[in-house]
Specification:
Layout: E1 3-8, H1 14-24, E2 31-38, E3 41-47, H2 51-60, E4 67-73, E5 88-90, E6 94-102, H3 105-114, H4 125-135, H5 140-148, E7 153-161, E8 168-173, E9 178-181, E10 186-189, E11 201-204, E12 210-213, E13 218-221, E14 233-234, H6 250-256, H7 258-265, H8 281-287, E15 290-295, H9 297-313, E16 318-322, H10 323-326, E17 337-343, H11 349-360, E18 365-370, H12 376-380, E19 383-386, H13 399-418, H14 424-445, H15 448-458, E20 463-468, H16 473-487, E21 490-495, E22 512-517, H17 523-534, E23 539-545, E24 556-561, H18 569-588
Parallel strand pairs: 15-16, 15-17, 17-18, 18-19, 20-21, 20-22, 22-23, 23-24
Antiparallel strand pairs: 1-4, 1-10, 2-3, 2-4, 5-6, 6-7, 7-8, 8-12, 9-10, 9-11, 11-14, 12-13
The chain binds 6-O-phosphono-alpha-D-glucopyranose.
Length: 605
């Protein structure tokens, strides 16, 4: 998704601006650009290709300057063509980059046309550039502040003006922006990651903040122009580039990192204590009577899985909602409900908005399960639990998902204890099962060669069904999502008991039905569902636990999972589905780490 980098320095900052974009590339984009102020004039380069091509352009044209802004764009308003790529200029005097969506851009555009401004792009962004230009009276930060006061929607922006050498002005509302403090140089970015290598001293801007960066100072004001102080944080964790090592893609690397990331996420303590979730958790956990989980994409599926654990282990009613639905529907608030936001990035616009919506409705108990300690989501919730997946580069989430599952299982057991449903010996048993996960995962990863053999057949399919029951229904949903995201094969997941209510009509000899078959209480029911597909000639690809007695047969292909994992089984069963999607995508030659049209962190709604 869109990324912003800005810098003022006494050296040529173009390499910093390009390197920053490179670090944000994994988030997904379809065009990019950079603008600098040099000799009192704006100069820019834009590309509808990759950042590497932009880099080649700036080297060839010797684009250099001591203040500048750069951007990766993920198209919302207007196709990914050069005219729509940022930075966007106004009258060759002002350059602007923008993340987010401006909802009232149409009336603003008409108003600005009336003032004589010409529009050369289809973007909502051009409206902001011209609006600031029209309000400029010699003071850039005031013009930006007045302009953003007229915007409805979400934005993070960075602005250059020819009359202000060595100055970058930024503003945020609904999209993240962070200031990086250097020695006689200062930086701005939509993600701290972009500034790794330049500085580790960061100031996270809050909603409504407007900032002005010069060589010697950073000034932050609120929407009324009153100066504000924001805490400076040292964030060393962002240093260092992520290396691919022996792997072909980051997604493959991240799948194989899971034994370690899961091990890192399991609390090192000997028992589950509410304080694992924050100082206020013991009181909050004793007050709550139910849970509301909000999330998007893969994180939503971890929430769906957790519902089974929370209701069976902690006996606490749990509702799981797609964040973009919850934020716009009428719901019945309950002050004793714990609102749990699950997010890898902690910046997903819909999840953040759902959280704020819940808070506005009076929900006071909030918890984030998140992979980024400095993210807006963690800062917004009273309680938090950090997953330790490390930086996830592949757009299709893998290790973030399994670490979220670990976190949510810990939450279920902790709440079970608080509510008197988990005894000390059960707690010890759950902890033992968790600690066994890394070793168990290593034996699941050893199934890769068998999965590669399946993926060669899968690569020729147009469509696939994913079937699961109970705890593994959300895992079927996640498996189908993975296949869609990176191989572009249409896939749908069903709770296997629903087959007879519709999807059986799709089953022919060419239909692949991937089935998750753990040895749990629903196994016999699932075996009947398998027969329903076989009887209609469908091709079954079954991941069966070692002790299920499901064996290879005509139309029935079986990969045997090394063990049976009990309640933690979803964390193990999702891994072969990740590998199946990955190898199928490789066989089809898709861009696995940057699938078409998708973004890693979706900071617009
Ligand atoms: C995007 C990503 C998905 C991710 C979803 C939610 O769609 O491509 O992989 O699951 O956002 O992201 P979050 O950071 O909130 O977990």
């Amino acid at each position: 998704m869109c990324g912003i980098v800005g810098a003022v320095a006494q050296r040529n900052i173009v390499p910093v601006l390009i390197e920053g974009l490179r670090r944000l590339e994994y988030r997904g984009y379809d065009s990019c650009g950079v603008a600098v102020l040099a000799g009192g004039e704006l100069h820019r380069a834009r590309s509808v290709s990759r950042v590497a091509e932009l880099d080649a352009q700036v080297r060839e044209t010797h684009l250099e300057g001591v203040s500048g802004i750069s951007h990766t764009r993920w198209a919302t308003h207007g196709a990914p063509v050069t005219d729509n790529a940022h930075p966007i200029f106004s009258c060759n005097e002002l350059a602007l980059v923008h993340n987010g969506i401006i909802e009232n851009y149409e009336p603003l555009r008409e108003m600005l046309r009336g003032k004589g401004y010409e529009f050369v792009s289809q973007t909502d962004t051009e409206v902001i550039a011209h609006l600031i230009h029209s309000l400029y009276r010699g003071d850039l930060i005031t013009a930006v502040r007045n302009a953003v006061g007229e915007l409805h929607g979400a934005y993070a922006i960075a602005v250059l003006h020819t009359a202000h050498r060595n100055t970058v002005v930024g503003a945020r509302q609904g999209s993240p922006l962070v200031v990086g403090l250097g020695e006689h140089e200062n930086f701005l970015a939509s993600d701290a990651l972009a500034l790794a290598g330049s500085t580790e001293r960061l100031v996270f801007l809050e909603e409504g903040d407007v900032c002005e960066l010069t060589l010697a100072s950073v000034r932050i004001v609120d929407r009324h122009g009153a100066p504000i102080e924001r805490e400076t944080r040292e964030v060393a964790a962002y240093g260092g580039a992520v290396e691919l090592g022996p792997y072909r893609h980051f997604m493959q690397k991240e799948i194989f990192e899971q034994p370690r990331t899961i091990g890192d996420t399991i609390p090192a303590t000997d028992s589950f204590d509410a304080t694992l979730f924050g100082e206020a958790a013991p009181t909050a956990f004793s007050e709550i009577d139910s849970l509301l989980i909000v999330a998007c994409g893969t994180s939503y599926y971890s929430g769906l899985t957790a519902k089974y654990w929370l209701e069976s282990i902690a006996k606490i009613p749990t509702q799981v909602e797609i964040a973009s639905e919850y934020r716009y529907r009428d719901s019945v608030p309950n002050a004793n409900q714990l609102v749990v936001a699950i997010s890898q990035s902690g910046e997903t616009a819909d999840t953040l908005a759902a959280l704020k919506h819940a808070q506005a409705l009076g929900h006071k108990h909030t918890l984030s399960v998140c992979n980024v300690s400095t993210s807006a989501m963690v800062r917004l919730t009273v309680l938090s639990f950090l997953t330790h997946a490390g930086r996830e580069i592949g757009v299709a989430s893998t290790k973030a998902f399994t670490t979220q599952l670990v976190a949510l299982f810990v939450l279920a057991v902790t709440l079970g204890k608080v509510r008197g449903h988990v005894t000390a010996s059960q707690e010890a048993d759950y902890l033992r099962q968790l600690r066994h996960l890394p070793a168990a995962l290593n034996s699941v990863l050893a199934l890769e060669p068998q999965i590669i053999a399946w993926s060669e057949e899968f690569a020729r399919k147009d469509s696939a069904l994913f079937l699961g029951r109970g705890l593994h229904y959300p895992i079927a949903l996640e498996g189908a999502l993975k296949l869609k995201e990176i191989s572009y094969i249409h896939a749908e997941a069903y709770a296997a008991g629903e087959l007879k209510h519709g999807p059986l009509a799709l089953v022919t000899q060419t239909m692949a039905a991937v089935t998750i078959a753990p040895n749990d209480a629903l196994l016999e029911k699932l075996k009947s569902n398998i027969q329903e597909v076989r009887a209609r000639g469908g091709q079954l690809y079954v991941f069966a636990d070692a002790d299920t007695k499901i064996v290879n047969d005509e139309g029935l292909h079986v990969i045997r999972m090394p063990e049976h994992y009990g309640l933690l089984s979803p964390i193990l069963h999702v891994v072969p589905l990740q590998l199946l999607a990955y190898h199928t995508a490789c066989a089809r030659g898709t861009d696995v780490d940057k699938p078409r049209n998708l973004a890693k962190s979706v900071t617009v709604e």
